[in-house]
Design a protein that fits this description.
With about 350 residues, the protein is of the alpha/beta class. It has helices at about 10-20, 40-50, 60-70, 85-90, 95-115, 150-165, 200-210, 235-250, 270-280, 305-310, 320-330, and strands at about 1-5, 25-30, 55, 75-80, 120-125, 170-175, 180, 215-220, 230, 235, 255-260, 270, 285-290. The strands form four sheets. The chain has a seven-stranded parallel β-sheet, with helices on both faces. A two-stranded parallel ribbon has the order 7-10. A two-stranded parallel ribbon has the order 8-13. Helix 1 (about 10-20) packs parallel to helix 2 (about 40-50), helix 1 crosses helix 8 and helix 5 packs parallel to helix 6. The structure holds nicotinamide-adenine-dinucleotide and uridine-5'-diphosphate.
Length: about 350
């Protein structure tokens, strides 16, 4: 299939482009490079040996997107493009709603006009809200979102559910990612956060490479086995393969609209991650015990059985793989794509 990847130059999109090529599909990337680099596209060529088509465009721009849809004959869309920093979404809420909702609405209009009937959407475990009960299953109602970023994911899911009702021949997969980390094993592509990272793994790798002085272990008194927060970390290559499986599922099942968790089903604590990172990479991190971050939950992880049942997909990589590959990317690219 020829598949449009909005935001395909970013962290998850670039890894998905690689797996789509490996599976015999033809990805076409549209990205405005707001949070990514043209270097990622050069690296994709090094990994895949293919010139992946790239359009530098804003997915909120209806005329630009209409032109791209008219030129390419897409069989499916994977919609990664969006802003994703939770704390920033609190201070720049209007920009988050504008970008994250407008991209989806523009895409839906183009799909309707150009007869494209399959869409995979990057949703997030944050839509479950503050439910202190894991594993999280797709049938659980959301307990309400706690920040504008999460609300944009919640609203996008609803927009796409309604679009699937208005367009009964569409097939829609709303993929709720848990915590993507790791990088392609080549070390050529990886996560490239702007400014100081918010998330654990990029913070860990930037401490290890000497860009940041120490890691704060935020919260040591959670009701978890070692007192630190527990999350469901998933290797980005496994996550990328989940998108290939979702595209194949949508091709074979016209008219479906499904919410699907993409996670491992296993929770690891901050100390599990830190200790594993130190062990597999033979280094020691400078770390400091620190207070909880406001609003952080003690623990959440997925029930991934629906993905296995519908998509025939499950994760293969371990926490060791995730820690090794994250470090391989960072040590080879200390300043990310600006190295
Ligand atoms: P990313 O920032 O690396 O990639 C997103 C890409 O979208 C970037 O390349 C950016 O330049 C592009 N973009 C943003 N707005 C655009 C617009 N209007 N037009 C064109 N391009 C635009 O983020 P990622 O980690 O790869 O995440 C991809 C998707 O998955 C996002 O929607 C994100 O919210 C979602 N998600 C990410 C995580 C995570 O922890 N990384 C977890 C759950 C969900
Ligand atoms: N965390 C931490 N130090 C950091 C960043 C994160 O201890 O510098 C902890 C955080 O409190 C949480 C876990 O690591 O328990 C995962 O945080 P992340 O922001 O990566 O994911 P999220 O909490 O959004 O699921």
């Amino acid at each position: 299939m020829k598949i449009l990847l909005t935001g395909g130059a970013g962290f998850i999109g670039s890894h998905t482009a690689v797996e789509l090529v490996k599976a015999g599909h033809e990805p076409v990337i549209v990205d405005n490079l707001y949070n990514s680099s043209k270097k990622a596209l050069e690296r994709l060529k090094m990994i895949t040996g293919k010139d992946i088509a790239f359009y530098e465009a804003d997915v909120c721009d209806p005329a630009a997107m209409d032109d791209i849809f008219a030129k390419e004959n897409f069989d499916a869309v994977i919609h990664f493009a969006g802003y994703k920093a939770v704390p920033e979404s609190v201070t720049k809420s209007v920009a988050y709603y504008r970008n994250n909702l407008d991209t989806t609405l523009t895409l839906c209009e183009c799909m309707q006009k150009h007869g494209v009937k399959r869409i995979v959407f990057s949703s997030s475990a944050t839509v479950y809200g503050p439910i202190e009960e894991s594993p999280l299953v797709e049938t659980m109602p959301s307990a309400g979102c706690t920040n504008p970023y999460a609300w944009t994911k919640y609203m996008n899911e609803q927009i796409l559910r309604d679009a699937a009702i208005s367009n009964p021949d569409w097939s829609v997969a709303l993929l709720r990612y848990f915590n993507p980390i790791g990088a392609h094993e080549s070390g050529l592509i990886g996560e490239n956060p702007k400014g100081i990272p918010n998330n654990l793994m990029p913070y860990v790798t930037q401490v290890a490479v000497g860009r940041l002085p120490h890691l704060n272990i935020n919260g040591t008194d959670f009701p978890t086995p070692d007192g630190t927060g527990v999350r469901d970390y998933i290797h980005v290559v496994d996550l990328a393969k989940g998108h290939v499986a979702a595209c194949n599922y949508l091709e074979a099942n016209a008219g479906v609209c499904e919410v699907i968790n993409l996670g491992t089903g296993t929770g690891y604590s901050v100390l599990d991650v830190v200790n594993t990172f130190e062990r597999v990479n033979h280094l020691e991190l400078n770390k400091v015990m620190a207070p909880r971050r406001p609003g952080d939950m003690a623990s959440y992880y997925s029930d991934p059985s629906k993905a296995k049942e519908l998509l025939g997909w499950q994760t293969e990589k371990t926490l060791d793989d995730m820690c090794r590959d994250s470090w391989n990317w960072q040590k080879n690219n200390p300043e990310g794509y600006d190295s």
